[in-house]
Amino acid sequence: MMKNRSSAGYLTVYMTMVLTVILSLCMTMIEGARRSAMRMEAEVITDTAMRSVLAEYNRELMRQYNIFAVDSSYGTAVSGRDRVSERFREYMEKNYTCDSAFPFMSYRDFIGAYPEEAQVSGVVYLTDDSGRIFRECAIEAISDDIGIEAARQVIGWATSTELVAADSMDVYAEMNEEAGEVSGAASTERTRREEERASQEAAYEKECLESEEAGEEAPEKPELTELPEEYRSPVSSVSDTVATGILGLLVDDPENLSGRQLDQSAIISGRMASGNINCGNISEGGAEENAAEVLLDKALFGVYLMKYMGRYGDVDPDDAMWYQIEYLIAGKSTDAENLNSVAMRIMAIRAGMDMLYLESDSVKKAEAAAVATAICTACMIEWMTPVLTHAILLGWALVEARYDTATLLAGGKIPFMKDSYSWHCDLDSALSGSSPGGDKNSDSGLSYQNYLGIFLLLTDIDELTARAMDIIESDIRLSPGNGSFRMDSCIEMIECSAVIKSSFGSRINIKRLLKY
Length: 516
Fold this sequence. Notes:
This protein has about 525 residues and is of the alpha+beta class. About 55% of the residues lie in helices and about 5% in strands.
C-alpha cells in the first residue's frame, strides 16, 4: 500500500511540471496570436482609413478633367495637411470602435487595441514641382483613354524640317526689310541722278553765260542724265493689310467674339509666381527619362488638354474662358488677345511654309522676277532685282497665308505643304493686298485643332502646366460648393503614420504611403 501511495505522488509532481510547460506554451501562443491579430488589424484599419480619405476626391475635378485628388479644403476656405489628418484620425477611431461597427452585439474585444496617435504625416499636392504631379496625372489619364498615336502624329508635324524652318522665319519683317532696301536704293539712285542732272544744267547755263559775254554762239545743250521713275513698293498693300490684324478675317460679326478675361493674380499661376501656395513634404522625384520619352509625355499632355479644354469653334458657355487652348498657348488675360495671338502665329507659320513652296516653284518665281525686273529697270536699280523679287515672293506668301488662316479658323483644312494645285492667290491679287476668303469646306490637310496641338508642344512645359491649372481652377470654382477651390489644395498622395496601443501593453507603429 505504501508503494502505491508513493507512485501517485510522483505522478502528481510530473503532471504539474508538464502542465506548467504546456500552459506557458499555450499562453505564449495566445499572446503571439494576439499580437499578430493586433498588427493585422492595425494594417487593415490603417489601409481602410487611408482609402476612405482618398475616396473623398473632388467630384467636379474628376467629372470635368478626369483627375483624382482630395480637396483638402473640403469646400471651405481653409485647406492643408491638418484638415486631411483630422479625417484620417476620425476614420481610424471609428474603425477601432466596436460599438459603432456592431451596435447590436455585446462582446469582449480580446485585442483591446486603440489608436494612440493617428495623423497624415506627408502629402503630395497636384501643384508640387511646378505642377509636375498634375501633369503626370493628366498623362496617365489620357494614355489610358486615347493612347499615344495622336501624340506621335503631333510630334511628327512639330519636328518636321519644313515646320522648324518656317517657324524660324519672320516673313513679314523680312519682306519689309527687303522692300525698304529697294526703296532706299531707288531713293539714293534718284537723288544721285537728280544731283548729277542739276550739275549738268548748272554747267550748261554757265557755258551759255560765258559765250554770251564773249559774243559767241551759245553751245549746244548736252544730253542730260535721265531720271528714273518714282519708286512705288509693290508690296506696300500687303504690308498695310497684314498690319491691320487678323481677327477681322475670322467671322462676319467680330463683335460676337468672346470678351471674357481672367484675373491672373487671383489664380494659381499668380500665386505660384508670388510663392503663396501649399507645398507637399514628400519628395517624389520623377523617373529619369530620355529626350524621346520627355517629348512623348509633353505631346500626350497636349492631347489631354485638347480633349478636356475648349477652343475657338468649340466652346462651353459655362466655362470661365471660352478660348482655353488659346490661353494655354498665348497666356494673355482676355479671350480676344489670346485668339488674335494664336491666329497671328498660325499666319506666321503658314507664311513660312508657303514661302518654302514658292522658292521651289520656278514658274511663280519667274512671275515675281518679271515684275521686279520691270520695276527695277524703270527705277534704274537693276542690281536690286533679286532683292525685290524675294520681297515680292514674301508678300505673295503672306497673302496666301491669310487665306490659309481664314480657312483654318472657318473650320477647313490646309495641306501641310502646298503644291501648284492647292495654291489659291495669283500674283496680281497678292500685290493688290487682297486674298480670297477662307474655305471651310476644304477637307485635305491639317485643321485648326492640329495647329493648336503643334503650338502646345512648342510651348514651355512649365508655363503650359501653370496655365492649364489656371483654367481648371477657374472652371471648378464656378461649380456649386467649390467657390474657394484651389489647385494647391488638391492632394494626390498621402503618407499616414499611426501608433496603435493595446490595453494588454502592446504597441505597434504603422506607416503607409498611398496614392491614386
